[in-house]
Design a protein that fits this description.
The complex is a heterodimer of chains A (318) and B (350). By secondary structure, chain A is of the alpha/beta class. Chain A contains 14 helices and seven strands. In chain A, the strands form two sheets. A five-stranded parallel sheet of chain A has the order 2-3-4-1-5, sandwiched between helices. Chain A has a two-stranded antiparallel ribbon with strand order 6-7. The longest helix of chain A has 14 residues. Chain A is globular and about 65 Å long. Chain A starts with 21 loop residues before the first helix and ends with a helix. Helices cover 49% and strands 8% of the residues of chain B. Chain B is globular, with a radius of gyration of 22 Å. Classes of the chains: A alpha/beta (318), B alpha/beta (350).
Chain lengths: 318, 350
């Protein structure tokens, strides 16, 4: 199996594994090329990071400098701007504001000034407040610097970035769709040898999924023979539906969240519109039927650790 | 391939830098508008005594910043009465950092320091851009921003010394006195100081579900606008009309007696769509030698004009549609934007 369960290193060992997505690449690169900004939306595992890396590579091949920045490392807006400053080529301008001179947002933004625009590709921005500070409060200052930005976020984290005045920062909003049938076939052909491909391809439901889900399902299928569907999420929802409508709703939301959650999780409760106690009851029901598994929550909270729930992997259900 | 050049250079796209905003600005008079917001603002800041308090009202993308910037550039470039120094605040601070009048005044003092101890942030590029359409009929044109004039150098040096030696803005108890001192120095140097709070949305919290976060709006007006309005400086506040729904905003506006200047809306019923004049200006300023009708059909301009009114005067978004439609027309091998290009772009975006 040649698949990598992580964003691909396109200029190196993973180049042959990249599934071309020409329409998305073009939307991203052409907008950045014309010094405009793109908000890239994608569910976990949809290929946001890989697409940003591909865009950087394409831009550089056309002579436009590009830098990749991991936004998850930033604790606040000035911290994010410092990460970008570090990633950009050194400034040659004399009299550029010094980092120690002020912690203010304005100074932090102005330190990003360079002689020529550089495409800034920001990945893993999960803190909406940081995003709002940078792309809303600093919007005009960033425009003035003329660096084009592509910022990749999950749709559920994009709210603050699409709220005025930040919404106007983006010339285009591009959402990564699930792979279609042909794309999944090509992806499988890229990552599997003939025998693996045969194993995976038998009796599989393959549509409407993102690359990471496909890859994980393919890995399972190869490991276990042909007993695993490439739509494991749907199988869980079908089984939850047999328990009740609420159970099916909870399962679908847990899958969409893509992370372990407690029955107190505000995002889960907001999505479902349920009280904590009701969520607790339904999640416990799913756990009792071995459709969810649990783990204790780690954290600084005083008292007994909460249970975190996540969908049960198929091997543990068998 | 004129449309190709139009698209590559982003001629129809919305302007995002100050220099371009100023360069492609079309005065309300040239658009045949009854409302002459630019003249009203200029008139208030030249013929009426210091201090004036004004608010510029317009929806997102309607052109508040362009209007203010263009007037600011003209005021600084032309000698219309007393010379002006204009500081535009448009990097908003978090509402929790603006929880007292002292914090707001400190923010202004910090902005002055960031601008090189000067009560102005209108760049020479903007002033040059503003000069582009003033070759024939200006009262008295002054080329003074290639280098700083002596009084500016003088007051700026004094300010720097004050910031360095007595830590301007660092002591909450003295912060108002410090800001008044700055304004007095600008005044003594012979300038009329103008402070602009551009786009109040940057200074408030994003509300849930697209609604306004009223408490942070109240905070901004109570601690910010109200206090700044007590200082000897012209105060111009640009805001979205939805702010007017907040009681505290209306109270402060009434208390300060702030006249309202609305960003004018392009007329819906004129024979010649006002958007055509906007596109013409851009073609002219970007030196693309082409007649407008050869790159965009009249019916397409009319379609864009309808879109402008549908979108609550959001000129920015309409210009973006025009730019994207140019790309769409090129993709299908056409050299002229047609209504179907506009419709295709709008359909894709929604």
């Amino acid at each position: 199996m040649r698949f990598r369960d992580r964003p691909l290193l396109l200029d190196g060992i993973d180049a042959a594994l990249y599934l071309d997505r020409p329409e998305l690449e073009s939307k991203l690169v052409e907008t950045l090329w014309s010094e405009r900004n793109v908000l890239l939306l994608g569910e976990p595992g949809s290929g946001k990071s890989t697409l940003l890396r591909k865009a950087a590579s394409l831009l550089e091949s056309r002579g436009r400098a590009a830098v990749l920045v991991n936004g998850a490392l930033a604790q606040e807006a000035t911290g994010l701007l410092e990460l970008v400053d570090d990633a950009l080529p050194p400034s040659e301008a004399r009299g550029a504001p010094q980092r120690a001179a002020s912690s203010g947002l304005l100074n932090a933004a102005r330190r990003l000034r360079r002689a020529s625009p550089v495409a800034i590709l920001l990945d893993n921005l999960v803190d909406g407040e940081i995003g709002y500070d940078v792309f809303g409060r600093l919007r005009d200052e960033l425009w003035e610097l003329r660096h084009p930005w592509a910022v990749a976020v999950r749709p559920r984290d994009s709210g603050a970035l699409r709220t005025p005045p930040a919404n106007a920062f983006w010339s285009s909003v591009v959402e990564i769709p699930p792979l279609g049938y042909d794309q999944i076939e090509r992806l499988l052909a890229l990552g599997l040898n003939d025998a693996e491909y045969e194993t995976v391809h038998r009796d599989c439901v393959i549509s409407g999924a993102h690359p990471r889900q496909i890859i994980r399902a393919a890995q399972q299928a190869v490991a276990q023979g042909s007993t695993v569907s490439l739509a494991p999420g749907q199988e869980l929802i079908d089984r939850a539906t047999e328990l009740g409508r609420s159970e099916a709703m909870a399962m679908a939301e847990l899958q969409a969240l893509g992370r372990p959650v407690s029955a107190h999780d505000p995002e889960l409760l907001a999505r479902l519109g349920w009280s904590r106690s009701y969520a607790q009851r339904i999640l416990a029901h799913l756990e009792a039927n071995k459709l969810l598994r649990t783990m204790p929550e780690r954290g600084d909270r005083v008292g007994r650790p909460r249970k975190l729930y996540e969908p049960q992997p198929s091997t543990e259900r068998m | 391939m004129s449309l190709q050049r139009i698209h590559e250079r982003g001629v129809f796209d919305d302007a995002t830098t100050d220099e371009r905003r100023t360069r492609v600005y079309v005065r309300s008079g040239e658009l045949g508008l009854v409302s002459r917001a630019d003249l009203e603002l200029m008139d208030a800041l030249t013929t009426r005594p210091l201090p004036q308090r004004l608010h510029i009202v317009g929806p997102s993308g309607a052109g508040k910043t362009s209007l203010i910037l263009r007037v600011a550039a003209d005021l600084m470039r032309l000698e219309l009465g007393r010379r002006h120094e204009i500081l535009i605040l448009r990097v908003g601070d978090r509402p929790e950092r603006l929880a007292s009048p002292e914090e707001v005044m400190k923010m202004v003092l910090e902005a002055i320091a960031v601008e090189g101890h000067r009560f102005s942030n209108i760049s020479p590029d903007v002033l040059r851009a503003a000069a582009a359409d003033e070759r024939t009929h200006t009262p008295k044109q002054v080329e003074h921003r290639g280098g700083l004039r002596a009084p500016v150098v003088s007051y700026s040096a004094n300010l720097k010394q004050a910031y360095d030696t007595i830590a301007f803005g660092q002591n909450a108890a003295r912060v108002r006195h410090d800001l008044e001192d700055v304004l007095a120095q600008v005044d003594r140097a012979g300038y009329r100081p103008v402070l602009v709070l551009d786009d109040t949305e940057k200074f408030v919290s994003p509300g849930a579900d697209g609604k306004l976060d009223e408490s942070s709006v109240e905070n901004l007006y109570h601690h910010g606008v109200r206090i700044l309005g007590e200082l000897p400086v012209d105060l111009v506040v640009a805001m979205h009309p939805r702010f007017e729904a907040v009681d505290r905003v209306r109270d402060v506006i009434e208390r300060l007696g702030m006249p309202r200047i609305d960003v004018p809306e392009l007329p819906a019923d004129s024979d010649e769509p006002a958007l055509a004049a906007i596109f013409e200006r851009r073609i002219q300023r970007d030196d693309v030698e082409v007649a407008l009708e050869t790159v965009i059909e009249r019916a397409a301009i009319e379609e864009l004009q309808v879109l402008y009114h549908d979108r609550d005067s959001d000129l920015r978004s309409v210009l973006r549609v025009a730019h994207t439609a140019a790309g769409h027309a090129l993709d299908r091998g056409a050299g002229r934007i047609q209504p179907r290009d506009i419709r295709a772009v709008v359909a894709t975006a929604t």
